[in-house]
Structures are given as structure tokens and as C-alpha cells.
Specification:
By secondary structure, the chain is α/β, with parallel strands linked by helices. It contains 13 helices and nine strands. The protein is globular, with a radius of gyration of 20 Å.
Length: 337
């Protein structure tokens, strides 16, 4: 999509690119646009979790939006591939901003080739334009597989657009927000799904409603930001002084911070994780984007007190989608060695 990016920036003078670190997407944005104005947004991956959530939110607001995906869905207006420049060019008519969420990620490592990852995560982006670790934007990412490698390559490509063409670029590195089972069989056997995902909101999870709000703030703020990277994760209750204890007694730290947690968990038959090896920190996103995530661990406990589901209504509406067109016997997807 190099020609399309050039055409888009020539027409609009500035471009935002947004690449979430988890199961997220890229956003290309004409300078000065405001959500809810005459801006028309193209969302790729509209049949996926984040794509559908964005379409639901934007359509609910009455905002002009156009969804594209390889798969048909109630939220997909055009079916086609993001690596097909002719298809992408056809979808660009009248578009002011692009949120590119179509991607291959970890669940596809064992079922797709490295070339598939390069084509989707890199070419697709080009086409669209022993203490626990305290993970901030300043910690250099070290990819463990083709998934992480191609995501980092795409992020660097987006930064190149900013440096060479003066494009506004915002990178969002999202925590996991998918509702599907964990790919680790030990985790699945030890914790019910809702228990595990509630625990993850302490340090590495994000409700999809908060993911959507972060994306839309980035679209609105990109022209004034210029270039930045942000970690988008639920606000952790942990502080740096807790890092030494988290790998040894994460449950004890959580109980210290939330004295009624043990009783609330026991009533559900839930357990806290005994150890935590990293904490994703969203301070910069909250400070610079003005982002206010609502669904954190304190929200989980409040929901348990009231006997309610801790997930957002948007998360429940989008639901689980799976990652492949087939079912697997052991887990939500095969795991590559």
C-alpha cells in the first residue's frame, strides 16, 4: 500500500499510524480530524474482536465507518485482502482515517507460515500505511517468535513513515483482550476462564471497551502528538516496590492491597495466581492520551460484590470468535514449539 499511503498523505498532509502490541491494529489518520465530525473511518479486520468492537462503537455513535475483512460478518462492508493493493485502493474513497486491526498473531503461529505473517503483519501494514519486570514503553521489546518479530517490524515501518514523510504516528501496544481460553493447558486445567482473566487484569489484560476508547483517543490526538508509543493495559494496582515479591507471593501482595479479595474469591471458588513475572504499566497512555480505562481489578472485585459480570457489555456482545475455521482437540489453537 505504499502508493496508497503516498496518495493519502499527499491529499491530507499528515498520517497517523497505530500498531497495538497485542491483538490490535494500525490506524492511519488525516491531521485535524475529530471523532464524530465528518471523519469517515475504514476499519480492517472488521470480523475480529477489536474490529467488531470498533464498528459497534462507531456505528452506535452514528459515526461514518466502513469495515473490511477476509471474512463476511455483520460488521464487514467489503470482503477482501489487505495485501491486495487494488482492493485496498477501492476502499480508500472518502476515507479520512484507517484503523488497521487485521493481523495474524500468536494463535496462528502453528497453522500459518512465516511468509503468511510477513504478508499480513508487514506487507499488510505497508499496504494500509528475578524480580518481575516493570514493562513501560522504554523497555526494548525482544520478539520470541514470528508473531512478535513481524509486529515489531511493522512498528518500525510506521516510525519510518513518520520520519520520512512527516506523518503523525501513534503506536498502541495493547495487552491481551481476547475472551478465548488460554493456550497453556496447565493454566486451563488450574483456573476457570473467568478466574484466570480476572487475575490477568492485575497486570496484563485489557477489556475490549477500554481498547476501543484508547484507539479512538489516539485517532483524535495523533496530529498534536506527532510520534509516540503507548502501553494500553488495565491500570495495575502494583507499584515498583512490589516487584521483588510478585514472583514469590503475588497472591499475598494482591490480598494486602485488597483485603476482601480472598473472601470474594473464595465465594466463587477462585484463586489468585501465586506468581507474576511482569507488570504492564499504562501511566504514559493515561497521562498523554487522557485515557481513563474503567475495567481493572478493582472493578472485578466491585462486580463480584454485586454479583455481576466484570466484563464490559461490549466484550459480552463481541464474544469469543476463535482464530481458525476449524476446531482443535487440545486448546483454542495449536501451539508451535
Amino acid at each position: 500500500m505504499d502508493d496508497i499511503v503516498r496518495q493519502f498523505t499527499t491529499r491530507h498532509a499528515s498520517l497517523l499510524t497505530l500498531w497495538p502490541f497485542g491483538h490490535g491494529g494500525v490506524v492511519f489518520h488525516a491531521a485535524g480530524g475529530r471523532i464524530g465530525s465528518a471523519m469517515t473511518i475504514l476499519v480492517t479486520g472488521s470480523a475480529g474482536h477489536l474490529g467488531e468492537a470498533l464498528l459497534r462503537t462507531l456505528r452506535g455513535r452514528g459515526s461514518p465507518v466502513h469495515g473490511v475483512d477476509l471474512k463476511t460478518s455483520d460488521w464487514t462492508d467489503a470482503v477482501g485482502s489487505i495485501i491486495d493493493p487494488d482492493f485496498v485502493r477501492e476502499q480508500m474513497t472518502g476515507i479520512t482515517a484507517i484503523i488497521h486491526t487485521a493481523t495474524l498473531h500468536k494463535p496462528h503461529v502453528a497453522t500459518h507460515s512465516k511468509q503468511d505473517f510477513v504478508a499480513t503483519n508487514v506487507t499488510g501494514t505497508l499496504q494500509a500505511g528475578q524480580a518481575a519486570v516493570w514493562v513501560t514503553e522504554d523497555l526494548p521489546p525482544i520478539p520470541k517468535n514470528i508473531y512478535g518479530t513481524t509486529k515489531l517490524m511493522a512498528e518500525n515501518l510506521c516510525e519510518l513513515f513518520f520520519r520520512e514523510r512527516g506523518l503523525s504516528v501513534v503506536v498502541l501496544r495493547t495487552s491481551r483482550f481476547f475472551p478465548e481460553d488460554d493456550d497453556d493447558p496447565a493454566m486451563r486445567s488450574a483456573y476457570p476462564l473467568d478466574n484466570a482473566q480476572a487475575n490477568e487484569l492485575l497486570y496484563r489484560r485489557l477489556d475490549i471497551a477500554d481498547a476501543v476508547s484508547a484507539h479512538l483517543l489516539a485517532v483524535a490526538r495523533a496530529p498534536e502528538i506527532g510520534f509516540a508509543r503507548y502501553i494500553v493495559s488495565a491500570t495495575t494496582p502494583f507499584e515498583p516496590q512490589h516487584l521483588a515479591a510478585l514472583p514469590r507471593d503475588a497472591a499475598g501482595v494482591a490480598r494486602m492491597l485488597y483485603p476482601d479479595c480472598e473472601q470474594l474469591y473464595a465465594a466463587r471458588g477462585w484463586r489468585l495466581f501465586p506468581e507474576i513475572d511482569r507488570v504492564y504499566v499504562n501511566d504514559r497512555a493515561r497521562r498523554e492520551l487522557g485515557w481513563h480505562p474503567e475495567f481493572d481489578f478493582a472493578h472485578v472485585l466491585s462486580s463480584l460484590r454485586e454479583g455481576q459480570d466484570f466484563r464490559s457489555s461490549l466484550a459480552r456482545e463481541v464474544g469469543a470468535k476463535g482464530y481458525h475455521d476449524m476446531q482443535f482437540d487440545d486448546g483454542p489453537y495449536p501451539v508451535a514449539n
